[in-house]
Automatic annotation (TrEMBL):
It comes from Tricholaema leucomelas. One of its GO terms (biological process) is maturation of SSU-rRNA. This is NOL11 protein. It holds the Pfam family NOL11_N. The keyword Plastid does not apply. PANTHER family: NUCLEOLAR PROTEIN 11. GO terms for molecular function: RNA binding. The keyword Zinc-finger does not apply.
């Protein structure tokens, strides 16, 4: 039995993202961690993504005019990345490297077709001429001679495996309509060539393979809409010449009069195969879809229609499918269970699935699409295979006995009850959720609350939603509509809490929160219970609502006490701000803006949305950032006091991003000229100050060395004079 679970977007593929060029990815490879993948586009960029957070961890590009000609892979032993550009130029770098021009470079003597990285065998390099080398052997002599083994044949597909401790590379080639299979054992340097048995009306289109018990099982998707299986034993007589490999039919991709025109496929387990392609019927338009088939019983297990189209590429890692859908890279979770005939035809009687699956879309309750809603809401919890059963022991609600009802029926019966009783029932349901299913259960409760609001806007559970977000470790992906509803209601306290607690908020939502926070009226915010923990220690508000400047003395240091010891001009310039060091926003708005500053983001995805911020709000935000920057610079440790306060690095990063997004507009605004001049003077003063510190850095290091050499046994006072 197989099922497709929840799906989400990993990244966009438009030219503005820097991830892809709209023509599909060159490839997707596993990263150094099971939750990481490497995306290589058809140009010059590769990006490392953390899948669960849907966030890029690193992005590297070769120079303009250079092109990545094979997928970038990770060396799992050294955690280095390996790329080939312009066919022959090898690059190797680590996570901390930024500029690929400065990393290791080697020019090879022949064109590279692909690099395969094995977890326990290291990287293996396949050249276009069919010769194979380990990366270590190549690095010893990059210009070594490479043989041309396959003559006029063209490599169509390749894969590497580990059989015991021996790397094995398999690749297929094509010449004049004939297909060949090569098996290369690297340690023994044995190469075997086979000819693929072919029918007149059947042309191989896609390959995949796996190895088990010294036998390579090669699967081939052919143009006659069938998948064939070929067995290749590793133990072969070296004297044998080219053999013809017989093939056997594994799967016919047709069901109920419809035929799947597959473009790519992957093996999930011994009984299941996933195929991406176009499902065609005689009287209907072709529909692109992702399907899972049971090869044991020749049945279609599940499918998902993809109306936006795909590039025909399909990858599978860690029980996740990756494929392009429209202009985005989509990820779909899946699960496979042991095959049985009853399950394959949908007649298997199983125990009740986890009742967390019954947290349903409120709009779907009582409608025909109820079953689809159940499936979509349960997907996040199915991967835990929980045995949780949620019941309510209250029977005072409209004489409804809920003790033995599923959660979906409980919600349906509570549809028209007063808000207080509705929330009490949901609290009881959440209290009975088991630990393994807790996040999925709570996320489904939030979804039910949000959907109830969508059905009837008077049912906005403001306090209850805030209570849930504060009490449980949720994420944006578990309840994606929550922040959109909060933005619609201008629920700034809930938005603030989500920004501080959710690790995976999309940059578009972050910018929407920022715009709301900047534009909202200060008088309105005074009536809102905003969390002020991040500002209360460095912004004090007097009775006249004006900021009262407070000076925090740390380690006996105060700027006022030590003012005479510094250059007067530097001190004057360093303390100039547009408002005489008064915060340009009130404490409530400052606390909300701090939540935005502390949220996670990617510069690549944030910048396009930041450009949509109105000029007035952009200037106000920049003034507040500059105020924070000055505050940080006043302290020895450059750290703002308080909980959840932004760091100086976060402040500087946002200032740079905001200036990049709005520099032309800000320079043209008359009201921003004085402020920009003050910012320029302050930064210039800091540059001078740190320049002076750099001049005496050598002297201080020498004094420290001399002090370590001496070991005074008695108390002494030493006066050191720096000339």
């Amino acid at each position: 039995m197989a099922a497709l679970c929840e799906s989400f977007t990993l990244c966009g593929l438009s030219p503005t993202t820097g991830v892809g060029l709209g023509g599909g990815l060159l490839a997707l490879e596993p990263g150094p961690d099971p939750d990481h993948v490497l995306l290589t586009d058809r140009g010059r960029t590769t990006t490392l993504f953390k899948v669960s957070d849907q966030k890029p961890l690193g992005c590297w590009s070769v120079k303009h005019g250079q092109v990545l000609t094979c997928p970038v892979v990770c060396n799992f032993e050294t955690h280095e990345y390996i790329a080939v550009h312009d066919d022959k130029v090898l690059r190797i770098w680590k996570n901390e490297d930024i500029n690929l021009d400065k990393v290791f470079k080697a020019t090879l003597s022949a064109d590279v077709h692909r690099i395969h990285s094995l977890p326990n065998g290291g990287p293996v390099v396949l050249f276009r001429g069919g010769d194979v080398r380990t990366l270590d052997a190549l690095l010893e002599a990059p210009q070594q001679e490479i043989e041309n083994i396959i003559s006029d044949e063209v490599i169509k597909w390749s894969e590497a495996f580990m059989e015991g401790k021996q790397p094995v590379l398999v690749f297929t080639t094509e010449k004049d309509g004939d297909f060949f299979v090569y098996v290369q054992k690297l340690k023994t340097n044995n190469l075997h060539k086979y000819k693929f048995e072919q029918q007149e009306l059947s042309k191989p289109m896609s390959f995949t393979a796996y190895i088990k018990n010294q036998i390579i099982t090669l699967l081939c998707l052919c143009s006659n809409d069938c998948i064939y299986k070929v067995l290749i034993p590793l133990q072969q007589n070296t004297e044998d010449k080219e053999q013809i490999l017989p093939k056997s039919l594994l799967l016919n991709l047709s069901v109920c009069g419809s035929v799947l025109k597959g473009t790519s496929f992957v093996v999930l387990d011994k009984d299941h195969i996933a195929v991406l392609g176009s499902l065609t019927a005689s009287d209907e338009e072709p529909k692109e879809c992702l399907t899972i088939w049971n090869t044991k019983f020749q049945t279609l297990q599940t499918s998902k229609e993809l109306p936006l189209g795909t590039s025909g590429q399909l990858w599978c890692y860690e029980e996740r499918f990756f494929f392009t859908h429209g202009k985005v890279l989509t990820v779909i979770m899946y699960k496979c269970e042991t095959s049985s005939l009853a399950a394959s035809v949908g007649k298997l009687k199983v125990r009740q699935t986890p009742d967390v699956s019954a947290f349903v879309n409120w709009n779907a309750l009582g409608h025909e699409e109820l079953a689809d809603s159940f499936q979509s809401q349960q997907s996040g919890a199915l991967k835990y295979e929980s045995k949780m059963v949620l019941r309510s022991n209250r029977n005072a609600v409209a004489n409804v006995q809920t003790d033995n009802l599923s959660v979906g029926k409980v919600l349906q019966n509570l549809k028209d009850v007063p808000t207080r009783i509705f929330e009490d029932e949901l609290r009881q349901l959440m209290s009975k959720a088991q630990a393994l299913d807790l996040q999925a259960s709570i996320g489904s409760v939030v979804t039910a609350l949000v959907n109830r609001y969508k059905t009837n806007p008077k049912h906005y559970h403001r306090n209850f939603l805030l209570e849930i977000v504060q009490a449980y470790d949720l994420s944006y992906s578990l309840c994606p509509d929550l922040m959109a509803v909060a933005l619609e209601n201008k629920d700034v306290r809930l938005l603030q809490t989500c920004l501080l607690r959710f690790p995976d908020i999309p940059e578009e939502i972050t910018c929407s929160c920022l715009e709301i926070f900047l534009s909202i009226n200060e008088d309105y915010l005074k009536r809102i219970d905003v969390n002020l923990e991040s500002v209360i220690c460095y912004i004090d508000i007097g009775s006249d609502n004006k900021e009262v400047k407070t000076e925090i003395v740390e380690n006996g240091f105060s700027t006022e006490q030590e003012e005479g010891t510094w250059d007067n001009q530097l001190a004057e310039e360093a303390h100039l701000t547009n408002d005489g060091e008064l915060c340009p926003v009130g404490p409530q708005k400052a606390a909300l803006l701090n939540a935005v500053l502390c949220s996670a983001y990617s510069e690549v995805f944030l910048l396009p949305h930041l450009k949509n911020l109105p000029a007035k709000e952009a200037v106000l935000f920049l003034r507040y950032l500059f105020y924070l920057y000055v505050k940080c610079s006043e302290k020895i440790n450059t750290t703002l006091p308080g909980m959840s306060s932004p760091t100086i690095n976060q402040i500087m990063d946002w200032m740079c991003l905001l200036l990049d997004a709005h520099f032309t507009v800000i320079v043209m605004l008359p009201e921003a000229k004085l402020f920009l001049s003050s910012m320029h003077k302050f930064v210039r003063a800091q540059v001078r100050f740190y320049s002076e510190l750099n001049k005496i850095e050598g002297s201080l290091q020498e004094l420290q060395r001399l002090h370590q050499q001496r070991d005074p046994q008695t108390y002494s006072i030493e006066v050191l004079e720096i000339i």
